[in-house]
Amino acid sequence: MSAGVETDPGVARDAGPTAEDPVLEIRNLSVDYGFGDDPTHVLRDVSLTLRRGEVLGLAGESGCGKSTLAYAATRLLPPPGLITGGEVWLTGRDGERADLLSLSDAELRAARWRDIAIVFQGAMSSLNPVFRIEKQIVDGILAHRPRMRREEARERAAELLRLVGISADRLRSYPHQLSGGMRQRVMIAMALALEPQVLIMDEPTTALDVVMQRQILEQVMELRERLGFSVVFITHDVSLLVEVADRIAVMYAGEIVETAAARDVYTRPRHPYSAGLLGSFPPLHGPRRELTGIPGAPPDLSAREPGCPFAPRCPHAMDVCRTELPVLGRTAQGEDGRLVACHLHTAGAPLPEEVGR
Amino acid sequence: MSFLLRRIAFYVLTAWAAITINFFIPRLLPGDPVTALLGRMQGRIDSNAEHALRVLFGLDQDATLWQQYLDYWGLLLRGDLGLSFTHFPTPVSEIVNQSLPWTVGLVGVATVIAFVVGSLIGTFLGWRRGTWADGLLPVATFFQAVPYFWLGLITIAVLSVNLGWFPSSGSYDRGLVPAFTGEFIGSVVYYGFLPALTVVLSSVAGWVLGMRNMMVTVSSEDYVTVAHAKGLAERQVMLGYAARNAVLPQVSSFALSLGFVVGGTLIMEMVFSYQGIGYTLYQAVSTHDYPLMQGCFLVITLSVLVANMVADLAYALLDPRTRTEDR
Amino acid sequence: MRNQLLFLRNGKVVTGLAILGFFTLLAVLGPWLSPYDPNQVSDALLSPPSATHWLGTDHTGRDILSQIIVGARGVLVVGLVAGVSATVVGVLVGVTAGFVGGVGDESLSALSNMFLVIPQLPLIILIAAQLPSAGGLTVALVIGATGWAWGARVLRAQTLSLRKRDFVEAARANGERTWRLVLAEVLPNLTAVIASGFVGTVTFAVLSQVTLSFIGITPVSEWNWGTILFWAQNNLALQRGAWWWFVPAGACIALLGMALTLVNFGIDEIVNPRLRSTGLHARSLRRRGIRPRVGFTPVVREVRS
Ligand SMILES: Nc1ncnc2c1ncn2[C@@H]1O[C@H](COP(=O)(O)OP(=O)(O)O)[C@@H](O)[C@H]1O
Ligand code: SF4
Ligand SMILES: [Mg+2]
Fold this sequence. Notes:
The structure holds three protein chains of three kinds. By secondary structure, chain A is of the alpha/beta class. Helix content of chain A is 29%, strand content 20%. In chain A, the strands form two sheets. Chain A has a seven-stranded mixed β-sheet, sandwiched between helices. Chain A has a four-stranded antiparallel β-sheet with strand order 2-1-4-5, with helices on one face. The longest helix of chain A has 18 residues, at 210-227. Chain A is globular. By secondary structure, chain B is mainly alpha-helical. Chain B has a domain at 100-286: MetI-like (MetI-like fold). In chain B, 75% of the residues lie in helices and 0% in strands. Chains in contact: A-B, A-C, B-C. The interface between B and C is large, with 76 and 61 residues. Residues 66-67, 121, 202-203 of chain A line the site of magnesium ion (MG).
């Protein structure tokens, strides 16, 4: 567990592999929607590091660009998505580093699923309705192990299902014959087929009921202990993240506005948006808080205003917030291992109690 | 199974409806083309056949409508569609029997080829959206908008009249005796090539455009993205995942558009004087041979229903969701 | 509003509407525009295009250009009448089926599927051939009576999905009358689908009518583009190499059909945004080095201003 481990605060902007043992390093990733003359700049210079063995939570309201980040990092963003800059460094099992955005098609295809697997938002639509579960798992295995016999791959598929607590005879089922929770488990089993180093999970439990959510989460965490992969866990529900993540990155309007150890974000948020998010969800454990929520909605990214994108909703907005975009930097308290993008931390004035605890 | 049972029930119902329409059309429409003809045939037509024609065309006004309807069904069940006026006294059923295989051979084969080729091209166009392949779209649109028979006229003008590569009419060399010999079959293929080509040319565009749009829609489905994320080879994603699913609506619209396509291709037989059911219908129309017209319509409709059922069966085989109980 | 603007910015739609406008002009002004009376015979028998007869003449020396210009009206009127009548029936059946649900829906859907499956052209031929006089309007009505099913099917599906939307549910909960609900909440949201169905039926009607004229079911004295082809076919225009006799008429049909299809593409792109190809112009993409692909997001490292 790396929660609370002291790290160099300059990580996200630094060029070299500085964070200890990073598996996935996203640097200055920029993404547009639209191939035309007036694209929507959805991600702007987003940087993020996932360390080996870590669970990194990515939080933010719906529409903040979390999925876009996950898809773009793996070059799976559908048209009219366009990556306009940045690098995504993946450290292979052998310690070799490669930039996913510069790989050839064949190399990228080989790295997918083997090194980095994704569980998509919405398991309902992630499984092809016309194929049996078995074929869908086996296809993925055989694509990377062309010399493996079908029989072997089939056994591996059965093993995987058992791993997520589904009986192997479900292999012969079609997706529509499974419940929502089961389908999500199948997706997880499928993602683990080649023992990837990085597992990206985009809102894996949003469509499920609370009990099922817990079960699946616990299972993933247990598998992680056992198999030792790293996880990027995306959700709009911060209180859920506090339970499972080591570190949390909070996203707003296509930018990371705060990163810190999960516990720190929860107890001592430094960005007004993080504070607001925490006020929008009931904690799974611990004392009940009053739910306040954030008034308003995330901005329309196709018509960006200058300055801090959160300014229209921020209770502490100042004049400078409406003209200058805050950049990710140290907190006013100078805490190690956490970064925040908010003018409050550079203004020199005393922090409001909400973000200054 | 419930899917197939429901479909079969639907087809039975449709067949009944088509037959009933056929019963009512001559009774509801103003004018009475048959009486005059019957008068002219006086003496040359035996009373049984005359009765059949009276039943088919609603001239048996002394019976109740219900009785007429029952009589009509009785005739159909015995396979009696009346006598043709122009080919008097050949029974309609005989003429229809002779021409149907030609149509099934020509229109059937050509339609299936058009479907397969069109779907393949559409797969490619949809997959390569935003590349030079988009340039083929206007061409497809043009072919879709052209009336079938006009395309037939043009092919005849170019390939037959001008270049003399193919015969412009007929279905085999009249100098040959129909038999299962290589020579005869070769002649059938040779004569059938041009009409088949025109049927393919004119109906392929619809399948291309349909499949292309389905590919565009399906390509952004999550399971296709997942297939990419799994690192499958491009061909496998395109054919095995995207096209495999995009073809489903294509097959169900195949079933639904058969009626339309067949209508158009029958006209092609008229242009090429190809001795199928469409040409027979054409001749019946131009010689006012009403019993033959009715018989042709009935047989065409029933054949389309059978083809539909085959398409539905294919759909059931392709989509597992139809095979289990509703969920 | 936005949709309408989008609609008119679409290049395909504008092209389609322009062609339609041209033919409409011909249909309205035809008799005044045509250089000759289309039935007027002359000594110039079967002559190729020339300065006096721009599109040549037929076997009795009649001017083909005039036949085409005068024939435009017949084609468009039939298309319009058939399109309107089929759309009215389609809306009635489709919206009702989608809205009432249950047994009513089942039977109406079965009815429209039946009409879809029964081959329409042979049915139209059968009816038209038994009518004592099958003039343009009669044919249009017959086409309308048999060609409504596709629209009804699509409309039913759309209505079903609309019915479940919040605003309809809300209006229903407020005790709005059903017919008011349909008129005020449902129909406006179906405009695009209805329009698309209408355009589709017009296309079908034009093709059917021309086909019927070509095989000689409608009176050959009523000029439309199919009639021209009827005369051409029956007087061996093909064998005599008189291309000017059958090429222009067919080209006009194709052009009209294409215009209608283009308009429908535009509507489809509004209904299904995934088909929209805004900014997907092959040339500009190539210039920027973008290859839009599913599964491999293009990476373009351009110098940003
Ligand atoms: N095809 C598209 N065209 C334009 N904007 C898009 C497109 N798809 C998504 N967006 C915009 O990108 C932003 C990020 O979306 P997404 O990554 O799905 O957010 P999240 O996963 O955080 O909910 C949203 O504001 C959305 O409006
Ligand atoms: S920069 Fe200003 S507006 Fe933005 S979050 Fe900080 S205080 Fe609020
Ligand atoms: Mg998302």
